[in-house]
């Protein structure tokens, strides 16, 4: 990616499945852009300019969701600038087989293959089944690795007992249970209320500010225990506040949908 931006002087498009992951990559790569002299541009939600600004000196790294990436490619084709893309990186490539979003991703890649002979496509996934078919479609080489530095194991802790995970919807189960105050009383000692108490109140205050004074009653009762949920029903500002609180240790338990599980780096152990 850096080779395309700095040596070959080409723009790069990175396509990611969720807004939260786009925002994480923007945060992580912006400092590299400042130091090395390229722009990092966000194409997610309401952000992004079509067609993108054409620059002579510095090149751009576009980080986009699937839908925004498709719109960006369309605008580059319409303005005759698709060859300015030197590299397209697609994370979670297996989503090409999932409903309408998969169709959008497939159209995006097909358009790039058809309109630009100089743009390289790199797709990444840990759960691809029909690798040979996809390899033929992309006219690509296939590389795989089974290496994992730390063996992945999943467990469920209830009170002082640890169980092996055998339920695929543990997060959903906990989310539904958190609305009942007795579950909090059973699962979490009262000492949890004293852990970073001031910081938790600050989180509640900030959440009220960004939501116009209306805070979900579940979060109001669970945040003092260091517990919160995260899903697409929250606004981007609310999600960001909760992610920061979890990253800094103010919150100790996050129940979430695939928005976070798909790859946002948080200090879960």
TrEMBL record:
Record key words, sorted: ATP-binding, DNA damage, DNA repair, Helicase, Hydrolase, Nucleotide-binding, Nucleus
PROSITE patterns, sorted: HELICASE_ATP_BIND_1
Helicase ATP-binding domain span: 1-146
GO MF annotations, alphabetized: ATP binding; helicase activity; hydrolase activity; nucleic acid binding
GO cellular component, one term: nucleus
CDD domains: DEXHc_POLQ-like (cd18026)
GO biological processes: DNA repair
A matching Pfam family: DEAD
Protein location: Nucleus
InterPro entries xrefs: DEAD/DEAH_box_helicase_dom (IPR011545), Hel308_SKI2-like (IPR050474), Helicase_ATP-bd (IPR014001), P-loop_NTPase (IPR027417)
Protein name, per record: Helicase ATP-binding domain-containing protein
Species, as recorded: Cervus elaphus hippelaphus (European red deer)
Lineage: Eukaryota, Metazoa, Chordata, Craniata, Vertebrata
């Amino acid at each position: 990616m850096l080779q395309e931006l700095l040596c070959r002087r080409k723009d790069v498009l990175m396509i990611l499945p969720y807004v939260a992951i786009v925002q994480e990559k923007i945060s992580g790569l912006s400092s590299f852009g400042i130091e090395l002299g390229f722009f990092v541009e966000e194409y997610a939600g309401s952000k992004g300019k079509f067609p993108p600004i054409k620059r002579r000196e510095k090149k751009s790294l576009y980080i986009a969701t699937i839908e925004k990436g498709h719109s960006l490619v369309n605008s580059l084709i319409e303005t005759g600038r698709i060859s300015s893309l030197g590299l397209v990186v697609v994370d979670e490539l297996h989503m090409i087989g999932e409903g309408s979003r998969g169709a959008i991703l497939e159209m995006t890649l097909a358009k790039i293959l058809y309109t630009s002979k100089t743009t390289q496509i790199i797709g990444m996934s840990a759960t691809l089944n029909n690798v040979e078919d996809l390899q033929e479609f992309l006219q690509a080489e296939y590389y795989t690795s089974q290496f994992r530095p730390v063996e992945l194991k999943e467990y469920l802790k209830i009170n002082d007992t640890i169980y092996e995970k055998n339920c695929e919807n543990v997060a959903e189960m906990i989310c539904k249970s958190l609305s009942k105050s007795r579950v909090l009383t059973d699962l979490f000692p009262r000492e949890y209320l004293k852990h970073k108490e001031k910081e938790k109140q600050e989180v509640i205050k900030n959440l009220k500010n960004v939501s116009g004074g209306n805070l979900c009653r579940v979060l109001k009762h669970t945040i003092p225990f260091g517990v919160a949920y995260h899903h697409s029903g929250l606004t981007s500002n609310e999600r960001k506040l909760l992610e920061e609180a979890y990253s800094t240790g103010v919150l100790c338990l996050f129940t979430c949908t695939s928005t976070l599980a798909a790859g946002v780096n948080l200090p879960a152990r």
